[in-house]
Structure formats: C-alpha cells, structure tokens
Design goal:
The structure holds 2 protein chains of 2 kinds. By secondary structure, chain A is α+β, with helices and mostly antiparallel strands. Chain A is built from 13 helices and 33 strands. An 8-stranded antiparallel beta sheet of chain A has the order 11-10-16-7-8-15-12-13. Chain A has a 6-stranded mixed beta sheet with strand order 2-3-1-4-5-6, sandwiched between helices. In chain A, strands 21, 22, 23, 24, 25 and 26 form a 6-stranded antiparallel beta sheet that branches. In chain A, a hairpin with a 3-residue loop joins strand 7 and strand 8. Chain B has one domain: pyruvate-formate lyase- activating enzyme, CATH 3.80.30. Chain B is globular and about 55 Å long. In chain B, about 45% of the residues are buried. In chain B, helix 3 links the parallel strand 6 and strand 7. Chain B is an alpha/beta fold. In chain B, the strands form 5 sheets. Chain B has a 9-stranded mixed beta sheet with strand order 11-12-10-9-8-7-6-3-13, sandwiched between helices. The chains are: A alpha+beta, B alpha/beta. At the A-B interface, helix 12 of A face helix 9, helix 10, strand 14, helix 12 and helix 17 of B.
Chain lengths: ~600, ~425
C-alpha cells in the first residue's frame, strides 16, 4: 500500500490550443513514464478525431513515478479532462477526482471564457491551482501582462505563476516540483468502506466496461464484487490496476489512488461518470456527491442515405453507445427520409463527433437533420408533451403554451466587440445579464439565451464576427415560455417533415424567407419546375421556384474521350446517390442542414 | 469473342512491344500534337513551340504505324447490307474506311511530312475509297497551293476550326486568326477542290449573346459548307479560360442562354437545309440517302456528308490510333499512347511501343459506351446495332432505364430502337448517366 502522503492527483485545465496536450507529454517524458522515442505525438489524445480537432474527448488517467528534489518518490496521477463546453459535466467529475489543477494559459492569448469556466469548476471542487503561462518563447508572448490578468481576474497571486514553454521543455521541472509542493495529498480514510468516484470509462471487447476511478475512501482488491451506487448495478472486479501509461494490473487500489477497474459490464451506461463504486459485501452508506446521469441537450434525426443501411446504422449506434453514455437514440420515421433514429447529444460538438465516427468507423453515408432542442408543450387538455422533433409538434389549436430550454452564456472578448456581440445576441433572442471588465481591453459578458438559438450557428457567428477573439461558455438556466411556431417547408407542394423547424413567431417570416432562398440554391435543378415554400400551418409565408433544368449535355465526345466521359458520368451518378429522393425531387444532404447557416450572408 | 477481335499486346523480344491490329479494323486516328499557340479553352494534348521536333516526330509516327499490322490473310468484312438490317443496324459495316489526322494543328506540317504520314497510314488502311480528313487551322497560312497539293495527296475532307466570327472573342479564346482570315481560308479550300469541308464553331462563348450567335448562324448557312460542328463551350478545368471564368475575370452565358443558342442553331441550320445527325453535328441534307424502307421518317437516315470517322466512334466501332496521346479502341481494350512529344519519340526510337496505358473494358462497359456514344446520334441505338456490337438485347439489359427515361420524355422507343427526344438531346447527360 503506497504512502498516502506521497500521492498527488492533478489535472490540467486549459483553453483549446493553449498547450495542454504538449505539457502532458512533457510530464510523461520527464518522469520516464514514456521515452520520447516511444512517444507518439500527443499520447493522451488517442482517438484520431481528437487529434484532428485538437480537443480531448475522453478523459484519461496516467500514473507517473517522480523523484522530487527532497529525494522521495511520489506517485503522480495525471487525470486528463475534456476541454470543450459540451463536456462540462465530465470535466467537473475529472476535477472532483483531483486535489490540484495546473491551469495552462497561453502567454499571448490570455484568459478565455473556457479557462474561466474551468477555473470556477476547479475552485468549486476545492482544488489547488498552479497557474502556468505557456508558450512564453513565442514572439507575441506578454507574460507580465497575462500574469497580472491571472491575478486580477482569477485572484491567483502573480508571483505564484510559473513560466513555461512545453514545446521546448523549459519550466517543466519547476511544474513537477510545484505539484509535489503545492498540491495537497489525498485525505480519505483508508479504514472506511470503499467509495471510489468513476470519472470516465471505456468499453473493452474482452474485459467489458473499464471504469476509471479515484478511490476516495477505503480500498479495493482484485476479485471483489462491487456495487455501483447510482445505477445499483453489481459487477465483478475482473482486474484492477493503473495506467502507466498502458493498463498495468495491480493487486489493490487504496485510498487516494487513481486507476481502473475491469467490470465485465456490457455497456458504459451501467457505469456512468460520476457514479460511486463500493463493495457489494460491505457497502458505504452514502454515495459521493455530484452524480448526475448524462442528459442530452441537442437532438437530431440520423438517417442512412441508403435505406438498406438502417440495420447497420442501428448496430453502429449500439456499439457507440457502449462507449458513450451521453448518446441517446430511439427509432423514428420520417415521411421524407424513411426509417432513422432520433439521437440526443450533449451539444453540437458531440453531435459532430458521433456523426463523423459513424461515417468513418462504420462506413455509413448519413443524412442528419437540423438540430433541435427539447420543448415542453402544455396542451389545451392539460397534458405536457416533450417534443424534441419539430415534426411532432401538435397542431396550433391544441397548444396552450410552449416552454424552451434557456442557457446562461458567458462571452469573453476584447471590448471593441461589445457592440457586435450585443447585436448578435439580440438577433438570437438573448437577454443581457451582466458585463464585467477583466482589464481595460477585455470584457466578460453574460446573457440568457434560448438553447435553440445557440445550437444553430451561434458559435460560428460569434467567432466570425469577432475575428475569432471571443470565447464562449454556457450552462443550462432552465425552461422559459416563448411564442414559438412550427415552420414547415414544402418542396414541390409536399411538406418535408425533416425540414420543419420551431422558430419564434417574430422571426418566422425572416427565417422562412432565408430558408427557402437557401434551399433554392442548394437543391439542384430538376427536370421539372420545383416550388419551395415556407408555411406556418396552412399559411404560406415565403416562396421560391427552382427552374426546370434546361441544358445538361456534353457537346463533344470523340474517340479519345469515351472512357473518360463514361467515368465522369459514373461520378455524376454516384454524386446523386448521396442525395435523398423526396417525392420525385432529389435533395442533397446539405439542404437538411441549411438551417445551420441561416445567417451566413 | 473470336481471337481476331482482341487487341494483342505481344512482347516479341525484350524491349519490343507492339499492338497487332486485328483484321477488319478500318478506322485510324493519327495525332499531330503541334500548335502555334495553345488556345485558352483547349485541353487537348498539344504543344506550342516544339516545331523543331516535327521531322523526328513523323519518323516515330511512321514507325509506330508500321508496327500496327493488319494480318493480310483474313478477308475483309463483307460490306453488303443484309436485308433485315435496313435501318442503322450493322451500320458500322457500312462505314467507309477512314483516316483522320487530328491535333493540334496537322496543317502545320509541311506537305512532305504529311505525305510520309499518309503513306504509312495507307499500308494499314488503303487511302483509296477511304474518307481522309485533316484538321486545319484557318490561321496557319494555308495558301491555295498547299491546299491543292494536300488534296492531291488523297486528303478528301478538311475540318477547319473557325470557332467564332467575332474578332474580340477570337482573341479571348487565344485563336491565331481573325474572322476575315477564316472566311478567306475557307474560300481557298473550296477553290482548291475540297468539297467535303467541316467548319467548327463554339457557342456560349465569353460575352456572347443570342443575337450575335444568330448573326453567325445566318452568315455561315450561306457558305454552303458540307458540314458543321457546333459545340457548346466546355470549360475544362486545366485551361486558362476556366481559371479566368472561375476567377470572375471573364463571364460566360449560363445554361439557359446556351440552351437557347442551341435551339436557335437547330432551327436555323434545319431551315437552311442541314440535317442534324448528332448532338453537335450537322451535314448538308441535299445528298441524303433515300430513307430505308423500315425507317420511320428521314431522321433515321444519315446524311452522306456525315463524318464517317466520327460515326465510327459513335457506333462504338474498333479503331486504331497512333501518335502522342492518341487513343485506340479494340474491344475489350482501349489504349493510349504517351502524351509527351519527346517521350513518344524516344520510346519509338528505343523500339518500344509508345503505349502509356491499356484499359480493360468489361461487358458492362461495352454496353454503357455503346449507349452513351450511340444515343448522341439522332438515329439513336437500334436493337440490331446493340445486338451486333454487344451480343446482348438492349431491351433486356436496360429494361428499367428505358422505361424510366421514356416516362420522363427524354427517350423515344419504337420497334427499331431508342433515341433521344428533343428535350433529351438538351439533357443528354441525364440520359447517359442512366446507362453507366
């Protein structure tokens, strides 16, 4: 059993691209956990998608042995946590498993909205924060200015701020020392009944669900029967151990330690992040605080382009679900798109990741409808209906009122963009709450805004209107009544259910107008004229017409061209296969996402 | 498939590869890749400023042609028309043998070099009785003497790239001639004894509008040319014009306008006595063959001035090819020679076949190519032609496609075969893609 006083559990929190992954790699190298030769670039981001998007999706935990300047060997557990707002809950659970956090701030960019949000999460969990300014060797670095900002905004004394360049390796030994000196050792009581916090999990085809745990109290030995206190599921401890950085079996995990448990469970949903592991034979009285089942916030229909691939899509979703407790799905049928699934996601990024994984790892051609949120509809008969698909909205006469989810958002941006951001938020039905100057040049703005407005294109708009300077964070504020209507889109006089959307009455006309214009450009000319209409109930509020295709013919084809032209035609035909026939109109995939870019021009 | 119909690629010795042409192949394409200047819209295999290679290129060409042997011991295919194929069936067998010198600008070659090329071609396909076409640029100073001597060498058809009668447009296209020079060259060619002259024009050109195109059509229909090829401009990605259009520096009429231009061409050429026999080709109708008994209306007949060489392509016949970048077709293979002039010359000098690529075609490819080429013709694809070429029944292979396209009004089907409707001709790609 390791000496509890020589354990340090910490996490690294940072805004995207501020250098978290590079710093993690340096720590692993300098403690000899991996050699730089065997180091794959960015070891902690294992999934291709993570590497491409530069974000960490699944938290991971690595154990390092570090000989400090006091001559003692310490067990350092680095718990990696996701850096995107969609995963705030996962971040909070990863932080709850630590006593300290390294806060990485880019020395030229300064504090961002996410930095702030993560620091608040860390403070809520009583973590000791070690501020580190990274990339100090870059030409644009302003370490003094940013250190002052850290002191003013976060209240962390600037003489405690460490300077580093993770890329060059400078400042990293000081960070390791600071972890030992400043982060307190874990305090749990080894003699109490086992309570271990699950902060992540993954599915292994041989060992079942692997739970990533932090033992808060008591200890666990291999072979013991465990109980998950939130889901009340029992499981075996097939194996336990630590990541060094690969899975290394151990005989025991004791108080303060971080490691894994192979449970043999078949689905990560049984073993959710935030749940408490205890011994089935000698359970703890109370679970650890903070458990919350994953709750999807954004919904969209996923349909196979080729309707024969429905079963494949179901199997792929089932497999993804094994590893992703936040993903929900249920079969749905669309008159336009056929059989598919209504899927729930934590947020837009989560949705994008799931879609890409389905397409890449399972080779599926997918059509995804515009994302929606979950509305609470009070019907005239007094019944409350939850609607996450616009096409299921009851008819107007049956609706007494509709409530929609609203969010608190925080935006940090240079002061010169205040006007621009105000404009954007107003067009998105946002309400101003507070404004706070972080320094003379930067401001923190807080608003209340309907989630439905954020899921569409808010983030992209915010980024483009502020030249990329603004950063965003959001949390659910609750439900609020709004004057919402269902906007239907008719293609060739037939309502296409997958194109329906819920909008505020005041914006219905403008949205309808833009959407039909957009669709006119996105839907290719057909062999006949195609009217595109937007309607509320029976009332058409906007109309565009796609003219019939007039000419499409290769004017020349001679001896040298034949096979080349045939291949060209094959390609053109292949392109059409990716379109969906709705009635007798070919609609390309982008059309179903047109709503996402309603305010592009 | 009898062995004589396949292309044999034989390695006779270590470095020697050669194409042995089967008997009965009666069409030969020869590529002359030289140009004074590359036109802004052209993506053919052509090269400017390489005129000093002409002599060496012709040496190589003659050597390649000598290697494309036709075994002499097999009887030529019967040219008599069986009674039951009174329509376009077995039309391939009715075609005259053809030799086509394309480019590039073959008319840049001095006469002695053309003479050598034709002599080498004659050993494969007799010039006597053949349609022998040379492409000519009205801007290469043709001269009456050159033209007369060319005619004397056995060339009996000229294809001239006029493209436009609007000088500013000709400059945008990078053509080296003016409209006046084109008119003069055409008149010279007539006087030199060429009766069978094709003139190429392009519509949908930068800045062109309907009235201007109409004026061009009205003028050229008075020239009494035997044949016209009118092409809607194709913007090929690798060309300067494409870059200019994409970059917004030059604008071209949209598909609605070019569709109308096309319809004006059909109308005005028809009124002037020309028969459209392919999507972009018209021939003077005054020498029409009497329509075959079984044919429904004269649209099922081909005008005698139709280009037999191109008909061979559209009827998906076998043909030989020689020269840099030239493509040949001996089912089930298509082959292409290397593109570069110097590469071509050095390969042939080294005793190798200058072949860059051989594509194997499946039966399915044969069906598709027979359809997408054959449907370009106004006579369409007859069941007999498809059966003769593919050894399968058109109505069986493409039953659902025929039904769908007929329902869409893009295709006409009758007891003889299938062909594009007028609307189908404008939307040809929509039809062709159903067959690939």
């Amino acid at each position: 059993m390791p000496d509890q006083n020589r354990i340090r559990n910490f996490s690294i929190i940072a805004h995207i691209d501020h250098g978290k992954t590079t710093l993690s790699d340096r720590l692993l190298e300098m403690t000899g956990t991996i050699s730089s030769r065997e180091r794959r670039d960015q070891l902690l981001d294992g999934m291709d998608l993570e590497r491409e998007k530069g974000i960490t999706i699944k938290a991971k935990a690595v154990r390092m042995d570090y000989r400090a300047s006091d001559g003692e060997i310490y067990e350092l557990n680095l718990i990696d946590c996701p850096g995107h707002v969609d995963f705030t809950y996962e971040v909070s659970r990863a932080l709850a498993a630590c006593e300290g956090a390294i806060l990485v701030v880019d020395a030229s960019q300064g504090i961002e909205a996410q930095t702030l949000a993560n620091v608040y999460l860390a403070l809520e969990n009583d973590l000791t924060i070690i501020p580190v300014l990274n990339k100090i060797d870059l030409p644009g670095a302003e370490p003094d200015h940013v250190a002052q900002e850290v002191e003013d905004v976060l209240g962390l004394p600037k003489d405690e701020v460490l300077m580093a360049s993770a890329k060059a390796g400078t400042g990293v030994p000081e960070i390791l020392e600071a972890i030992v000196e400043r982060v307190p050792p874990p305090v749990g009581n080894h003699d109490r009944p086992l309570r271990a916090l699950i902060f992540d999990s993954h599915y292994d085809p041989y060992k079942g669900v692997i739970a990533y745990v932090r033992v808060v109290e008591g200890s666990l030995t291999s072979g013991a029967k465990i109980l998950l206190m939130g889901t009340l599921v029992q499981a075996d401890t097939l194996e336990l151990g630590a990541f060094r950085p690969t899975m290394t079996p151990l005989a025991e995990l004791s108080t303060g330690e971080v490691g894994y448990i192979a449970t043999g469970l078949k689905e990560v949903g049984d073993c959710q992040v935030g749940d408490t592991v205890t011994l089935a034979a000698a359970p703890a009285e109370q679970p650890l605080a903070g458990y919350r089942p994953a709750k999807p916030m954004v919904f969209a229909g996923l349909y196979p382009v080729d309707s024969n691939a429905y079963i494949d899509l179901r199997e792929a979703l089932e497999k993804l679900k094994l590893n992703d407790a936040a993903l929900s799905f249920a079969p749905e049928t669309s008159a336009a798109l056929g059989f598919g699934f209504r899927c729930g996601f934590l947020g837009l990024l989560h949705m994008e990741i799931v879609r890409e994984r389905l397409e890449r790892e399972y080779n599926l051609d997918l059509l995804i409808t515009a994302p929606s949120v979950e509305y609470q509809v009070l019907q005239t008969d007094g019944e409350i209906l939850l609607v996450d698909n616009p096409s299921e909205m009851p008819e107007i006469a049956k609706i007494a009122s509709i409530e929609e989810p609203v969010m608190h958002i925080s935006v940090i941006a240079p002061t010169r963009y205040i006007g621009t951001i105000m404009d954007l938020v107003t067009t998105k039905r946002g309400a101003f709450e507070t404004m706070e100057y972080l320094d003379p040049q930067r401001v923190l703005l807080k608003y209340r805004i309907p989630l439905a407005e954020i899921v569409v294109d808010f983030y992209d708009q915010l980024k483009s209107r502020t030249q990329g300077y603004a950063s965003l964070d959001y949390t659910l504020a609750g439900y609020q009544e709004a004057d919402l209507v269902k906007l239907d889109i008719l293609v060739n006089t037939t309502a296409v259910d997958a194109l329906s959307l819920i909008v505020h009455r005041d914006f219905a006309y403008a949205n309808g107008r833009t959407l039909v214009e957009k669709l006119r450009k996105l839907i290719p000319r057909q062999m006949f004229e195609v009217p595109i209409q937007a309607a509320i109930g029976n009332k058409v509020i906007a109309r565009e017409t796609i003219k019939a295709m007039r000419k499409d013919v290769l004017s020349k084809c001679y001896g040298g061209d034949i096979t080349r032209k045939r291949k060209l035609l094959e390609k053109q035909k292949e392109g059409k296969r990716r379109m969906k026939m709705v009635g007798n109109v070919e609609i390309p995939q982008e059309a179903f996402m047109a709503i996402l870019s309603l305010n592009d021009d | 498939m009898p062995a004589m119909n396949t292309l044999e690629l034989r390695a006779a010795s270590t470095a020697e590869l050669r194409i042995a042409a089967p008997a009965g192949v009666r069409h030969l394409y020869i590529h002359i890749p030289f140009c004074h200047r590359r036109c802004a819209y052209c993506d053919f295999n052509t090269y400017a400023n390489m005129d000093d290679r002409m002599e060496a290129y012709v040496d190589a060409l003659c050597r390649e042609l000598a290697g494309l042997r036709t075994p002499a011991d097999l009887p030529p295919r019967a040219l008599t028309r069986p009674a039951e194929t009174s329509s376009a069936a077995l039309l391939r067998a009715d075609l005259r043998p053809t030799i086509f010198l394309g480019g590039g600008t073959p008319s840049m070659l001095p006469l002695p070099l053309i003479e050598r090329v034709l002599a080498a071609a004659d050993a494969l396909i007799s010039l006597t009785g053949a349609e022998v076409t040379v492409e000519a640029n009205p801007g290469t100073v043709l001269g009456r003497e050159y033209l007369r001597d060319l005619r004397g060498l056995g060339v009996n058809r000229l294809s001239m790239g006029v493209q436009s009668l609007h000088d500013p447009t000709l400059r945008v296209l990078g053509r080296i001639h003016t409209a006046a020079e084109a008119r003069a060259s055409y008149a010279d060619a007539m006087r030199a004894g060429f009766e069978n002259i094709n003139l190429d024009f392009i519509f949908g050109l930068p800045g062109q509008h309907i009235q201007q195109w109409e004026a061009t059509l009205r003028e050229i229909t008075t020239w009494e040319a035997a044949h016209f090829s009118l092409y809607s401009l194709i913007l090929e990605e690798s060309t300067p014009l494409y870059a200019q259009v994409v970059g917004g520096r030059v604008s071209v009429p949209d598909d609605d306008v070019t569709g109308e231009m096309y319809e004006r061409a059909i109308e005005l050429l028809g009124a002037a006595g020309y028969t459209q026999y392919e999507i972009s080709n018209w021939a003077r109708a005054d020498h029409l063959e009497p329509p075959p008994q079984a044919a429904v209306g004269s649209r099922l007949a081909l005008p005698v001035r139709a280009c037999h060489h191109n008909l061979a392509y559209w009827l998906n016949a076998d043909y030989l090819a020689a020269g840099a970048g030239a493509h040949g077709h001996i089912f089930p293979q298509r082959y292409a020679d290397v593109l570069g002039i110097d590469d071509y010359i050095s390969k042939v000098r080294a005793g190798q076949a200058p072949i860059a690529e051989i594509t194997e075609l499946s039966k399915r490819d044969l069906y598709a190519e027979t359809m997408l080429m054959g449907l370009r013709l106004n006579i369409g694809v007859s069941y007999a032609h498809f059966r003769d070429r593919c050894g399968a029944e058109l109505a069986e292979v493409y039953a659902s496609e025929l039904q769908e396209l007929t329902a869409l009004g893009l295709l006409d089907c009758d007891t003889l075969g299938v062909r594009l409707t007028e609307r189908g001709r404008l939307l040809g790609n929509q039809v062709f893609e159903r067959f690939v």
